[in-house]
Amino acid sequence: MMDGVGSFGAGRTGSTIDPITFAKQPQTILRALSWIFSLVVFASIVNEGYYNVGSERLYCVFNRNADACNYGVFVGLVGLLACSFFFMLDYKFSSISSVKDRKKAVMLEIGFSGFWTFLYFVSFCFLANQWSRTKKEDLPLNQGADAARAAIAFSFFSIITWAGLTARAVQKYLLGTDMTLFTTEHMDGGAPTQPYPSNSPGGGTTETTEAYQSPPFTENNAAPTYQVPIY
Protein backbone atom coordinates (compact mmCIF):
# COMPACT_ATOMS: atom_id res chain seq x y z
CA MET A 1 0.00 0.00 0.00
CA MET A 2 1.22 3.47 -0.82
CA ASP A 3 2.18 5.80 2.00
CA GLY A 4 -0.36 8.45 2.87
CA VAL A 5 -3.36 6.40 1.76
CA GLY A 6 -6.00 5.79 4.39
CA SER A 7 -9.10 3.63 4.50
CA PHE A 8 -11.71 3.76 1.71
CA GLY A 9 -9.48 5.75 -0.62
CA ALA A 10 -9.12 8.80 1.64
CA GLY A 11 -6.03 10.28 3.19
CA ARG A 12 -4.95 9.31 6.66
CA THR A 13 -6.87 10.81 9.52
CA GLY A 14 -5.71 14.34 10.27
CA SER A 15 -4.06 14.83 6.88
CA THR A 16 -4.24 18.28 5.31
CA ILE A 17 -6.78 18.68 2.47
CA ASP A 18 -5.52 20.62 -0.53
CA PRO A 19 -8.49 22.41 -2.16
CA ILE A 20 -6.82 22.39 -5.59
CA THR A 21 -6.11 18.66 -5.43
CA PHE A 22 -9.65 18.05 -4.19
CA ALA A 23 -11.11 20.07 -7.07
CA LYS A 24 -9.14 18.03 -9.62
CA GLN A 25 -10.37 14.66 -8.40
CA PRO A 26 -12.63 12.80 -10.88
CA GLN A 27 -15.28 12.37 -8.21
CA THR A 28 -15.37 16.11 -7.54
CA ILE A 29 -15.69 16.88 -11.25
CA LEU A 30 -18.54 14.39 -11.63
CA ARG A 31 -20.22 15.86 -8.57
CA ALA A 32 -19.96 19.39 -9.97
CA LEU A 33 -21.42 18.30 -13.30
CA SER A 34 -24.27 16.50 -11.54
CA TRP A 35 -24.99 19.65 -9.54
CA ILE A 36 -25.11 21.78 -12.70
CA PHE A 37 -27.28 19.28 -14.60
CA SER A 38 -29.73 19.01 -11.70
CA LEU A 39 -29.93 22.79 -11.53
CA VAL A 40 -30.72 23.00 -15.26
CA VAL A 41 -33.46 20.35 -15.03
CA PHE A 42 -35.03 22.05 -12.01
CA ALA A 43 -34.76 25.63 -13.27
CA SER A 44 -35.94 24.84 -16.80
CA ILE A 45 -39.22 23.36 -15.61
CA VAL A 46 -39.85 25.89 -12.84
CA ASN A 47 -39.17 28.95 -14.99
CA GLU A 48 -40.57 27.96 -18.40
CA GLY A 49 -42.19 24.57 -17.91
CA TYR A 50 -45.72 25.95 -17.57
CA TYR A 51 -47.90 28.07 -19.84
CA ASN A 52 -51.46 29.39 -19.90
CA VAL A 53 -53.93 29.74 -22.74
CA GLY A 54 -56.39 32.61 -22.30
CA SER A 55 -56.79 31.94 -18.59
CA GLU A 56 -54.91 31.97 -15.32
CA ARG A 57 -54.67 28.19 -15.22
CA LEU A 58 -51.15 26.90 -15.89
CA TYR A 59 -50.47 23.81 -17.98
CA CYS A 60 -47.35 21.69 -18.09
CA VAL A 61 -45.50 21.83 -21.40
CA PHE A 62 -45.14 18.04 -21.35
CA ASN A 63 -48.49 17.11 -22.90
CA ARG A 64 -50.26 19.10 -20.18
CA ASN A 65 -49.31 16.35 -17.76
CA ALA A 66 -48.68 17.96 -14.38
CA ASP A 67 -47.09 14.74 -13.09
CA ALA A 68 -44.30 15.07 -15.64
CA CYS A 69 -43.40 18.58 -14.49
CA ASN A 70 -43.71 17.66 -10.82
CA TYR A 71 -41.48 14.64 -11.27
CA GLY A 72 -38.81 16.64 -13.11
CA VAL A 73 -38.84 19.35 -10.43
CA PHE A 74 -38.58 16.77 -7.65
CA VAL A 75 -35.68 14.86 -9.21
CA GLY A 76 -33.79 18.04 -10.07
CA LEU A 77 -34.28 19.71 -6.69
CA VAL A 78 -33.39 16.68 -4.55
CA GLY A 79 -30.43 15.91 -6.82
CA LEU A 80 -29.23 19.48 -6.39
CA LEU A 81 -29.45 19.29 -2.58
CA ALA A 82 -27.86 15.84 -2.50
CA CYS A 83 -24.88 17.01 -4.55
CA SER A 84 -24.34 19.86 -2.10
CA PHE A 85 -24.46 17.44 0.83
CA PHE A 86 -22.05 14.96 -0.74
CA PHE A 87 -19.71 17.82 -1.68
CA MET A 88 -19.33 18.58 2.01
CA LEU A 89 -19.01 14.89 2.85
CA ASP A 90 -16.26 14.38 0.27
CA TYR A 91 -14.32 17.36 1.59
CA LYS A 92 -14.62 16.26 5.23
CA PHE A 93 -14.13 12.57 4.53
CA SER A 94 -10.46 12.49 5.54
CA SER A 95 -11.26 14.01 8.92
CA ILE A 96 -13.56 11.10 9.85
CA SER A 97 -11.49 9.08 12.30
CA SER A 98 -13.71 6.00 12.60
CA VAL A 99 -13.38 3.39 9.86
CA LYS A 100 -16.95 2.26 10.58
CA ASP A 101 -18.25 5.78 9.98
CA ARG A 102 -16.30 5.99 6.72
CA LYS A 103 -17.81 2.71 5.61
CA LYS A 104 -21.33 3.95 6.41
CA ALA A 105 -20.69 7.17 4.44
CA VAL A 106 -19.48 5.24 1.39
CA MET A 107 -22.42 2.83 1.54
CA LEU A 108 -24.82 5.79 1.78
CA GLU A 109 -23.24 7.30 -1.32
CA ILE A 110 -23.48 4.02 -3.23
CA GLY A 111 -27.14 3.58 -2.37
CA PHE A 112 -28.20 7.14 -3.12
CA SER A 113 -26.14 7.56 -6.29
CA GLY A 114 -27.38 4.28 -7.70
CA PHE A 115 -30.98 5.10 -6.84
CA TRP A 116 -30.76 8.59 -8.34
CA THR A 117 -29.24 7.18 -11.51
CA PHE A 118 -32.36 5.08 -11.87
CA LEU A 119 -34.67 8.04 -11.11
CA TYR A 120 -32.97 10.16 -13.77
CA PHE A 121 -33.38 7.32 -16.24
CA VAL A 122 -37.09 7.30 -15.45
CA SER A 123 -37.15 11.10 -15.75
CA PHE A 124 -35.55 11.00 -19.19
CA CYS A 125 -37.95 8.32 -20.47
CA PHE A 126 -41.01 9.95 -18.90
CA LEU A 127 -40.32 13.48 -20.09
CA ALA A 128 -39.27 12.35 -23.57
CA ASN A 129 -42.43 10.27 -23.92
CA GLN A 130 -44.72 13.09 -22.82
CA TRP A 131 -42.92 15.62 -25.02
CA SER A 132 -43.35 13.39 -28.07
CA ARG A 133 -47.10 13.36 -27.42
CA THR A 134 -47.36 17.13 -27.04
CA LYS A 135 -49.32 18.78 -29.86
CA LYS A 136 -47.99 21.89 -31.52
CA GLU A 137 -51.33 23.68 -31.19
CA ASP A 138 -51.11 23.22 -27.42
CA LEU A 139 -48.01 25.44 -27.32
CA PRO A 140 -48.79 28.88 -28.77
CA LEU A 141 -45.68 30.53 -30.19
CA ASN A 142 -43.75 27.37 -29.25
CA GLN A 143 -43.84 28.50 -25.65
CA GLY A 144 -41.63 26.49 -23.27
CA ALA A 145 -40.20 24.24 -26.00
CA ASP A 146 -36.58 25.10 -25.27
CA ALA A 147 -37.07 24.46 -21.56
CA ALA A 148 -38.65 21.09 -22.26
CA ARG A 149 -35.79 20.02 -24.51
CA ALA A 150 -33.23 21.22 -21.95
CA ALA A 151 -34.91 19.22 -19.16
CA ILE A 152 -34.89 16.08 -21.31
CA ALA A 153 -31.30 16.51 -22.48
CA PHE A 154 -29.85 17.21 -19.05
CA SER A 155 -31.83 14.34 -17.54
CA PHE A 156 -29.95 12.11 -19.94
CA PHE A 157 -26.61 13.72 -19.06
CA SER A 158 -27.41 13.23 -15.38
CA ILE A 159 -27.74 9.49 -15.92
CA ILE A 160 -24.11 9.39 -17.03
CA THR A 161 -22.74 11.54 -14.21
CA TRP A 162 -24.69 9.80 -11.44
CA ALA A 163 -23.69 6.40 -12.84
CA GLY A 164 -20.07 7.58 -12.75
CA LEU A 165 -20.47 8.65 -9.12
CA THR A 166 -21.92 5.25 -8.29
CA ALA A 167 -18.96 3.50 -9.91
CA ARG A 168 -16.49 5.70 -8.03
CA ALA A 169 -18.24 4.99 -4.73
CA VAL A 170 -18.16 1.24 -5.38
CA GLN A 171 -14.46 1.49 -6.20
CA LYS A 172 -13.88 3.36 -2.94
CA TYR A 173 -15.81 0.71 -1.01
CA LEU A 174 -13.83 -2.15 -2.54
CA LEU A 175 -10.59 -0.32 -1.76
CA GLY A 176 -11.64 0.00 1.87
CA THR A 177 -12.66 -3.63 2.29
CA ASP A 178 -9.40 -4.88 0.77
CA MET A 179 -7.21 -2.87 3.14
CA THR A 180 -4.98 -4.63 5.63
CA LEU A 181 -3.58 -1.50 7.24
CA PHE A 182 -6.56 -1.10 9.56
CA THR A 183 -7.26 -4.08 11.81
CA THR A 184 -10.25 -4.87 13.98
CA GLU A 185 -8.62 -3.07 16.89
CA HIS A 186 -8.49 0.12 14.82
CA MET A 187 -12.15 -0.21 13.94
CA ASP A 188 -13.07 -0.58 17.62
CA GLY A 189 -11.00 2.44 18.57
CA GLY A 190 -8.33 0.50 20.46
CA ALA A 191 -4.63 0.19 19.87
CA PRO A 192 -3.50 -2.82 17.85
CA THR A 193 -1.66 -5.59 19.63
CA GLN A 194 1.25 -7.25 17.87
CA PRO A 195 2.05 -10.78 19.11
CA TYR A 196 5.63 -11.90 19.46
CA PRO A 197 6.75 -14.21 16.68
CA SER A 198 7.65 -17.75 17.57
CA ASN A 199 10.33 -19.99 16.10
CA SER A 200 7.94 -22.88 15.43
CA PRO A 201 8.33 -24.71 12.12
CA GLY A 202 4.75 -23.75 11.14
CA GLY A 203 5.77 -20.13 10.85
CA GLY A 204 2.70 -18.85 12.76
CA THR A 205 2.88 -15.85 15.05
CA THR A 206 1.80 -17.09 18.47
CA GLU A 207 2.40 -15.52 21.81
CA THR A 208 4.78 -17.55 23.98
CA THR A 209 3.61 -18.65 27.43
CA GLU A 210 6.86 -20.18 28.66
CA ALA A 211 8.54 -18.70 31.71
CA TYR A 212 11.62 -16.59 31.25
CA GLN A 213 14.78 -18.65 31.46
CA SER A 214 18.07 -17.32 32.69
CA PRO A 215 20.76 -16.96 30.08
CA PRO A 216 23.58 -19.47 29.90
CA PHE A 217 27.12 -18.88 31.19
CA THR A 218 26.10 -17.23 34.47
CA GLU A 219 27.78 -17.44 37.84
CA ASN A 220 25.53 -20.32 38.91
CA ASN A 221 26.72 -22.42 36.01
CA ALA A 222 30.45 -22.44 36.85
CA ALA A 223 32.70 -24.96 35.16
CA PRO A 224 33.53 -28.10 37.26
CA THR A 225 36.97 -28.24 39.00
CA TYR A 226 39.52 -30.64 37.44
CA GLN A 227 40.81 -33.31 39.85
CA VAL A 228 44.21 -35.05 39.39
CA PRO A 229 43.79 -38.85 39.45
CA ILE A 230 45.65 -40.81 42.19
CA TYR A 231 47.66 -43.80 41.04
From TrEMBL:
Keywords: Membrane, Transmembrane, Transmembrane helix
Ranges of biased composition (kind: Polar residues): 196-224
Compartment(s): Membrane
Membrane topology label: Multi-pass membrane protein
Disordered: region residues: 190-231
Main subcellular location: membrane
GO cellular component, one term: synaptic vesicle membrane
Pfam families attached to this UniProt entry: MARVEL (PF01284)
Family according to the record: Belongs to the synaptogyrin family.
Protein name as annotated: Synaptogyrin
